[in-house]
Amino acid sequence: MELISFLIDFILHVDKHLEAFVLAYGPWVYLLLFVIVFTETGVVVMPFLPGDSLLFVVGALCGVGYMSYPVACAVLLCAAILGDQCNYMIGRYFGPKVFQWEHSRFFNKRAFNQAHTFYETHGGITIIIARFMPFIRTFAPFVAGVAEMNRAKFTLYNVVGAFIWVFGIVTLGYLLGNLPWVKANFSKIIWALILVPGLIVLYGAWKARNQAAPSATS
User: What percentage of residues in the chain have a pLDDT greater than 90?
Assistant: First the structure.
């Protein structure tokens, strides 16, 4: 329970915790950032770690000179790319292991083929958009691996998505993170970064389900 309480407090007050870490340990903060982002994107059971809010805070700290903007971006970019690549490899390795029995209750051949087709056709944009979606960001590369998305295609979109995500949000934090209004309402901004993408995903799923319902009954 203490660990859960700490994680919740860290996510909601990541600005204060990260600033305190920088002041206490200096350059070691770059290793901490790498571990957090790599774990959040690369370990499928760790989707609750801060992502967007962490990058925004890093940008804000770079804006006041506590951290180096180019070094932070380089570290975060490497962590994001390697994390997704690791998650993809885990999915690609364990997918066939889990589904090796074609007629088992764990395997649906038709669903697997549909997932594979989807990721080959639309998977690229899915990998990029998922970067900005908490929780989905962690699961998308794993599912791409399970669906056996082409490795070269996944890597290309992984790099592009990571570049847009890291430089986009860190730069946003660098430019806006130290404005008085932003600092005064930072906890609300964190909740917005978590809830707004989640609501968009739920709406998309609801809309897709409603569109699929008439075709299923026809």
Answer: 29
95-103 contacts: CB < 8 A, separation 24 or more? Answer: 95/145, 95/146, 95/147, 95/148
- Tokens 């990029």 -> residue: 128
Hey, what amino acid is at 14? V
The pTM of the full predicted model, rounded to 2 decimals, is 0.79
Contact, 54 vs 18, CB < 8 A? yes
Rounded to the nearest 10 degrees, how much is the dihedral formed by the CA atoms of 61, 17, 166, 33? 110
Both tokens of 198, joined, read 């989640």
**Longest pairwise C-alpha distance within the chain:** 64
Contact 143, 95 (CB under 8 A): no
Q: List Cβ neighbours of 131 (8 Å cut-off, separation of 6 or more).
A: 80, 137, 161, 162, 164, 165
Q: At 13, list the tokens.
A: 């007050």
pLDDT at res. 112 = 58
- Dihedrals φ, ψ of 67, to 5°? -140, 160
Three-state SS for 206? Answer: helix
Query: In terms of pLDDT, which residue wins out, 203 or 14?
Result: 14
Q: Element (H or E) spanning 157, and its range?
A: helix 151-176
pLDDT, one tens digit per residue, over 124-158 is 788 888 888 877 788 888 888 888 888 999 999 99
